[in-house]
Specification:
three-stranded antiparallel β-sheet, 5 strands, 50% helix, 2 domains, 134 residues, homodimer, two-stranded antiparallel ribbon
DNA sequence: ACGAGGTTAAGTGGAAGTGTTTAAATCCAT
DNA sequence: ATGGATTTAAACACTTCCACTTAACCTCGT
C-alpha cells in the first residue's frame, strides 16, 4: 500500500537537486547512473504535475451560472457580490470570504493581477452553494 | 502513460457524488455494484490526499524558519507580518497579499477559522522568498 | 427489527508505474 | 569543438494500482 505519491527515491533526488547537486553527483552519492537519476527526477516532476491537476479538478466539480465579475473589479469585493447574488436565489454559499478568494485565485489565476480582476470572470454555483469560476 | 492522477472512472464518481447521488444510484447508473463504487470513491479520495501531500512536500523542500503567527490573529493581517519579517532578512516574498492568504489556507486549513487563526502557525521561508506554513 | 446507505475483506486479470542498465543523443558554455 | 550536464531509447524484473465481484458487516433513523 503506497501512502505517498512521491517515492522516497524521488523525494531524495528532488531534495538533492534543490540543493544544487548535479545528476552525476547524486548518482555517485546514492550509487546509480546519472541516466537513472534523470528518469527518476522526471517522473517525480510528472507526479507533481498530476497532483496539481488532481486538486484543480476537485476545485472545479459541477455547478450552474451565477453572475459575472466585471474586468477591473477589486478582488476583495468579489465575495460580497457573490453572497448577494446567491442570497437573491435563496442559496447559502458554502464558502466564507477568504474561501471564495482562495477558490477564485486557484481556479482562474490568469484572470487575476494582484488585487484586481484582469479579465471578466464567470461565476457558477450549484444548489448546495458550491462555487466555481471560469 | 497515465496523464492524470485520477482516472476517468474516479472523476465520474466524484462528480456524481458531488451532485448528491448515493453509491447505489451511481452503481445502477454505470452498471456496477455499490461496493465497487465505494472502493473507487475511496481510492479517488486517497489519490486526492496524496496529491495534497505531494504538493506540500514541494512547498517544504528546503526552507528556514521565518516567524510565528500567534493564535487569534486576523488572517488579513498575516501577510503584512510576513512581508516585514522577510524584509528584515533582505528577502523579497514571492507572493502578494492574496497569494499568501491562499497559501496559508491551503497549507494549514485546520489552523484557520473564518478570518481568524485558531492555532499558532509556524512560517518558513527559503532564499527565493518561497513561503510555507506549519 | 428493518432497510437504506455505506464500509470492509479477499481475490482476480489486466494495466501501469518504479528502479535499473547500457548506449546513443542533445545541449550549452568555455 | 571538447567536456560536463542532461535527455532519450529500449529493455528487464518487480511491484503496485485499477476495476470488478461476492459476501458479509456497520450504522443510522423510523
Amino acid at each position: 500500500m503506497k501512502d505517498s505519491l512521491l517515492t522516497e527515491r524521488q523525494k531524495a533526488i528532488l531534495r538533492h537537486r534543490r540543493q544544487g547537486l548535479t545528476q552525476q553527483q547524486i548518482g555517485d552519492l546514492i550509487g546509480t547512473s546519472k541516466a537513472n537519476i534523470c528518469i527518476i527526477e522526471k517522473s517525480a516532476l510528472e507526479n507533481v504535475r498530476r497532483a496539481h491537476e488532481a486538486l484543480q479538478f476537485m476545485y472545479t466539480l459541477d455547478a450552474g451560472f451565477l453572475c459575472v465579475i466585471p474586468s477591473g473589479a477589486d478582488l476583495l469585493t468579489v465575495p460580497e457580490t457573490i453572497f448577494r447574488e446567491a442570497s437573491d436565489r435563496g442559496v447559502k454559499v458554502r464558502y466564507n470570504t477568504i474561501g471564495l478568494i482562495n477558490r477564485l485565485c486557484d481556479s482562474v489565476p490568469e484572470h487575476v493581477k494582484a488585487r484586481l480582476v484582469k479579465d471578466e470572470i464567470q461565476v457558477y454555483m450549484n444548489d448546495d452553494g458550491e462555487i466555481y469560476f471560469e
